[in-house]
Amino acid sequence: MLGIAKRRLFQIGSLVVSNSYVGSFFYNNIYQGWFKGVCVPFLNCYGCPLAVMSCPIGTLQHFVIIKAIPFFLIGFVGVVGLLIGRMFCGWLCPFGFFQEMLYKIKTKKFYPKRAFKYTKYAVLIGLTLLVAYWVGEPWFCKLCPVGTLEAGIPIILWNPSGDIFTEGGSIISRIGLLFYTKLFILGAIVTAAVFIHQPFCRYLCPMGAIWSVFNKFSLFRLKAHTEACGLWDDCLQGCPMDIDVHRSPNDGDCNRCLDCTKLDCKGVKFRLAWTGNQNRSRHKLTGHDPEQVKERSG
Fold it and tell me: How many Cα atoms occupy the beta-carbon half-sphere of 225 within 13 Å?
């Protein structure tokens, strides 16, 4: 419980720090200072009235559209990814935190087949890169539920008078099909998050798709010492992403929340890649399918 509480503090702190431009309440504008030249390592909309830094996917789409190479972004993602993999998803992402809170609502839960996890790579390659390149428009950003929640809805409600918002008429007068489509997407994801743990992170997030590539190669990794575990079923149930941590401790879907390291089972550790050996059990692994365990646990 202490580890989860610590992670909650990091998530809340990240939300506050990345959205701390209180000047928007006094000057009716979006912050566009030099901090906006720096990306946060998670989705956080540039257009959010409180945002002080840029979104990496928005930055990526900008460079794709102008057909230039984002050297700084590539270097940042490469260095951080090779260090800790997808850990930012589990510890800092505000939208991931929002989905976790929705999942706490008491209702029947669903555990879709993990084969659907590949859809986020289609979103990354198709919508985020190829569509932006072909049509010259950042269509992922236009439809992004994070942008709708953090920027679209607040700006509509706020409707400030600054020129940045009112060119060609007021914001409210220009609400159309695109905005209603964005609301539908956000509503669908919010609803799904009540029944499925972090559905956007699992199936749609292009930033999660990028970070996931680094999990198996990062300097710090999860180590599963199977012989030390006498509570295998607890480990399977303890992973919010439904990963069999003993078979695939550094699965691309793992957001490095480290909940599995806080269980009574002491067989899973987060440590440097070259420390210790990732032992695999010689025992037959039947009867430990994660979906079966979820069904048995109700």
Answer: 12
Q: Which residues of the chain have pLDDT under 70?
A: 1-3, 159-174, 226-237, 264-265, 276-298
Dihedral of CA atoms 25, 29, 32, 38 in degrees, nearest 10, equals 50
> In the structure encoding, which two tokens stand for residue 202, read together?
């699992």
For the chain, give me the number of helices (H) and strands (E)?
17, 2
Furthest C-alpha separation in the chain: 69
Domain positions in the chain are: 2-212, 220-297
Q: What are all long-range contacts of 289-296, with beta carbons under 8 Å and residues at least 24 apart?
A: 289/244, 290/236, 290/239, 290/242, 290/243, 290/244, 291/111, 291/113, 291/242, 293/233, 293/236, 293/237, 294/111, 294/236, 294/237, 294/242, 296/233
Distance CA 153, CA 265 (A): 44
CA distances from 134 to 124, 137, 211 (A): 14, 8, 25
The candidate with the shortest Cα–Cα distance to 255, out of 55, 99, 39, 44, is 99
The pTM of the full predicted model, rounded to 2 decimals, is 0.85
Q: What DSSP state is assigned to residue 123?
A: I
d(CA 10, CA 21) in angstroms, rounded, equals: 19
Q: Which amino acid is present at 286?
A: T
**Is-contact 26 55, C-beta < 8 A?**
no
